[in-house]
Amino acid sequence: MRKMLIKLFGLVAIICSMAITPAIALEEFPDVEPDYWSYDAIMYFKDKNVLSGYPDGYYRPDDLVSRAEFATIITKALGLRDINKITFTKYNDINENHWAYYDVMLGSYYNLIHGTPSGYFYPNNNITRLEIIMVIMKALSIKEITEDEAIRQLSVYRDANDVPYWATLTTGKAQQLGLIVLLPGKEDYILPNQYATRGELAVWLYGMLQRAAIQPSEKLPEQPKGPRKVDGYVIPNVIFDDHYAIIPAGTTIPLGIMDCLFTKTAKEETPILTRALMNFVSEDRTLLIPVGSEMVGVIDKVGVGRTMLKNSQMIYRTESLIDSNTRQPIAPFKAVAKMTPQVREFTHNPILQKIGFKGFKGHNFYTHKSQQADFVLLEEVKIDLDDDLHIVQ
Q1: Which of 57, 75, 76, 100 has its CA 20 to 30 A from that of 68?
Q2: What is the phi-psi region of residue 285: left when phi exceeds 0, alpha when psi lies from -120 to 50, beta otherwise?
């Protein structure tokens, strides 16, 4: 479900120092609790020394972000720090005395951010969610989609018509790649014109970096050759054999189920689509399975909940990795996952809650698009690290 995806990206899920004045580094931010929806993303970038709080030690996740602050965030997140290799852009309202001047110059040189045709950057204006989408997509090398496909992708949102025509293709592609950050309680809305907060920005940029690790824009500095080292979900016990990486059978890999299903109506052998919601890496950070990789399969078994008798379940089975362009199977990927209904909160007493759940059976459940399930590999997966991560077995 979307809330789970937000928490996953926030999966795990960048942000940098947004404060104009020097910040004081603390182990934790007093105003960002572990159950805060983007806590994981915020702390990830704090640990990377890309993010800091304010001098009083607070992070202030609900504060808005200015365009100047965002320029600093995006360039730090992407590691763009060498000003000796760039040409400088002239803006009428920002010069070398401005605290964010060099980051604005870096962002402009790499075509991530830009000003108006009349030569103004407006550094103090707050940045909107739509502007963030435009920027993060510029950091990627992607294949365009048709207008019809973009409209179809955005049709799942109640405010799709709020996306201006000129931004439809880019926003639709962001949706296709799973890069639109949905706010808790507002999962049916893109909110393109709403100003972004410091809390959500960490999640936006974490998703961007996951993609940029495998699809960086050609305008960004060239990445080193060979197996790519990135951050992501660590798969233990990977075996390396020359230029191959082998993920053993029995390994658990969390995948997003990209179909909305209900145990009362789902049918066995119904086709399903699953997707890697993050980069999967080995313990030494070698990229194994890129974010967005898709596997097709079927519903292997459906058990409907029966009152006082049993709770429902669904078992999913993947069969093949598919090519993102042709949508055809290209390599076997055999894995299974079982889902059962979650414990319902009808009491604050955890013991009574479990007794009630198990004793009064009959619960059915939905799986929502992008809901995560733990798949267990039935066969080993062999990856050719020298051939763009091609799964060969």
Answers
A1: 57
A2: left
Closest C-alpha among 322, 340, 339 to residue 331: 322
The pTM for the full model equals 0.72
Strands 280-281 and 233-234: parallel
Positive/negative CA dihedral, 64, 70, 74, 75: negative
Give the separation between CA 220 and CA 223, rounded to whole angstroms. 9
Residue 105 half-sphere exposure toward CB, CA atoms < 13 A: 19
Going by C-beta distance under 8 Å and a sequence separation of 6 or more, which residues neighbour residue 290? 213, 214, 276, 279, 389
> CA 220, CA 78: separation in Å to the nearest integer?
9
Domains (range + CATH), the chain: 2-212 (no CATH), 233-391 (2.40.128)
Contact 163, 154 (CB under 8 A): yes
Residue 184: DSSP 8-state: T
Report how far residue 282's alpha carbon sits from residue 272's, in angstroms, rounded to the nearest whole number: 27
